[in-house]
Amino acid sequence: MQINVALEQGTLNLTIESGTHVPDELFGFAQRRNPKRAFLFVSKVLGRHIPVSPAVMRKATDTLAAQIPADLPGPMVVIGMAETAIALGAGVQQALSRNRDDTLYLCTTRHPLDLPVLVEFREEHSHATQQVLHWPQHPADIELLRTARTLVLVDDEASTGKTFSNLLEALQQAGLDQFEHIIAATLTDWSGGAAAERLGKRARAVSLLAGHWDWQANDAPPPDMPQVDVLGTGEWHAKPADDWGRLGVSQHPVTPLAQHLTVTPGERILVLGTGEFVWPPYLLAEYLEQQGAQVHFSATTRSPIALGHSIQQRYCFHDNYGQGIPNFLYNVTPGDYDRILLCSEPPAHLLDKALISALNPICLEFYP
């Protein structure tokens, strides 16, 4: 199957080779404001740039997890890539943990905590190239990581496999080279087999759709990219006791805030995560959907994308981590919802007043 998409900076040519979904179910397209890579696959199942039902997100994570062989030896460590695949990775690990008790979830971050860093690595093509991975904070989790026989690396898409290989190389240099099996798990794999090949003979790739792409640039001038390549904590410093993935977790409880929220059947609710803080808000959104509300989930992001194609609305505002960088929210029309719940990991006073004025949300501070 061939797909050809004309964007402002050139033409993207896709060849679809295999998959569990048709392409239109999984993604659309947009123009990045990024000279290093001019196009973006805009996921329709991740709840990042397009609001989606929590049930749609859950089906995607469960379906991806089902591609991972059930008989792989443990312990098993699942690593989700910041920021887009944090909820995806957590959902994959949660799905795997339904049938085994030897899994640990970790996510990479651009907000390092005041605790030991395991590795630093780069995502060269990204708008934000620097990432770190922390050591788990509990001794039992550290031991699980050191003895893990299976490593699952999760991202929304693989274009060349270079980011996964950069992370694996960093782990090996840190002394973690004991993995017998390595899985590169993505919603879409455009690497033409390179994602697994870069990880060595121990590796295999699983995805919901696989193929390869070819980009033909035109003579349009490169876009202006906002300065978002920042690694740090800003004004806010996380408390380890409130960790949901940066320091390693195996269980994913729904926030106690859920018990204080009531819904009416059919009520239209939008739950918004902020930046890397997406997994606990997603679990809240899923809970409210199960109570009978008509829920959509999405999140703010530091990813700069041009208007057009799959990106029809855009808000620009200051990040709520106190880093002084622009953040964005896409494809949200406030009038479509009876209630908007804006979820924050840092203190709510760090939320941009312009965003609050535009959305008129209920601000939920998860860790007051």
Automatic annotation (TrEMBL):
The keyword Glycosyltransferase applies. The keyword Glycosyltransferase applies. InterPro entries: PRTase-like, PRTase_2, PRTase_dom, TRSP_dom, UCP020967. Pfam families: PRTase_2, TRSP. SUPFAM superfamilies: PRTase-like. Residues 256-349 form the TRSP domain. GO terms for molecular function: glycosyltransferase activity. Residues 26-211 form the Orotate phosphoribosyltransferase-like domain. Keywords: Glycosyltransferase, Transferase. It comes from the Bacteria. This is Phosphoribosyltransferase domain-containing protein. It comes from Thiothrix lacustris. The lineage of its organism: Bacteria, Pseudomonadati, Pseudomonadota, Gammaproteobacteria, Thiotrichales.
